Amino acid sequence: MKYFTVCLAVLLNSCSGDDKTIKIKGSDTEVNLAVLLAESFHKVNSEVFVSISGGGSGLGIASLLNGTADIANSSRSIKNEEVSLFKVKGELVDSFIFAQDAIAFVVANDLPIDSISTTDLANILNGKSKNWSALTGKDLPVNIYGRQSNSGTHDFVKQKLGIEFTPYAKQMNGNAQILEAIKTDHSGIGYVGAGYVSQGQSKGIKVLLITSGKNEKAVSPLDGSMIANGKYFFQRPLFQYFKSTSSYKIKPFLDFEKSKDGQGIIQASGYYPVK
User: Fold this and answer.
1) Whether 124 and 134 share a structural domain
2) How far apart are CA 127 and CA 115, in angstroms?
3) Is residue 200 left, alpha or beta, with left meaning phi > 0 and alpha meaning psi from -120 to 50?
4) Which one, 88, 110, 189, 221, has the greatest CB density within 10 A?
5) Which residues constitute the domain of residue 63?
6) 274 within domain boundaries
7) Considering only CA atoms, which of 96, 132, 131, 92 is closest in space to residue 112?
8) Residue 191 falls within a domain, yes or no?
9) Is residue 256 within 8 Å of residue 83, measured between CB atoms?
10) Total of domains in the chain
11) pLDDT of amino acid 11
């Protein structure tokens, strides 16, 4: 695992004057995992306090820019326009890939569908297919539960499928809210980080297998061996962005994430280690 420079200037001031507090903001996909990592880190580094909050990848990067975060959790790559904002301030930003994630598409348990192609999924999410009848034989309207536009997961799904989301897709605050909506809406479909359905939150829902071609095998986002071999269509790296001048401050936490204990927490939480 490496640190990647995405901007070529140097900031002389640290992101925070308090070297004993590390503030992490951003991706809702990463927030629960970050909390677990921070709790374990604190047990072996009791003098350092790590605060965690979500709000979306875009919020995390904006917080890093304005100095209210030391680390921005992001489930997507930083955008060119965001890089430009750091350049304007003369700041150097690095990134660290600490885990891999897979996006799970979920429906209610009683919807008669077990797998879906990326083509059919694109047609549902862009609003072209508005009824489940062609895929399930049931005359039910499709209800879509997704994330806001500042979500890295929203951007990732949109880019992978090459679509714009239908304006009728419901915008939810986070993964947990999407899961709760699907449990009560028997014609709904939503997308969440696979870690959220592998950690006891899958009661009442079904995780769809995904096919990305006519002769391709349907793959589950919960299949670790397929993820390890890069065979799941919706798998992605999870990033942490930080200003280079604060690297001395956050290095102990990043080192813990890379350690055997840290990688063990990542895997036990339904995410995938970086090899």
Assistant:
1) yes
2) 19
3) left
4) 221
5) 3-100+237-268
6) no
7) 132
8) yes
9) no
10) 2
11) 29
The tokens 């990848």 sit on which residue?
57
Alpha-carbon span 160 to 70, nearest angstrom: 29
The answer to whether 241 and 64 have CB atoms below 8 angstroms apart is yes
The alpha carbon of residue 145 and the mean position of all alpha carbons in its chain are separated, in whole angstroms, by: 16
pTM, two decimals, is 0.82
Residues 123 and 28 in one domain: no
- The token pair at 117 is 């192609």
Q: What is the pLDDT of residue 195?
A: 84
Dihedral pair phi/psi, residue 261, rounded to 5°: -65, -45
CATH number at residue 82: 3.40.190.10
| Beta pairing partners, 170 | 145
For residue 100, the model assigns a pLDDT of 92
Contact 165, 126 (CB under 8 A): yes
Write down the pLDDT at residue 251. Answer: 94
Same domain as 106, residue 93: no
Residue 197 lies in a domain: yes
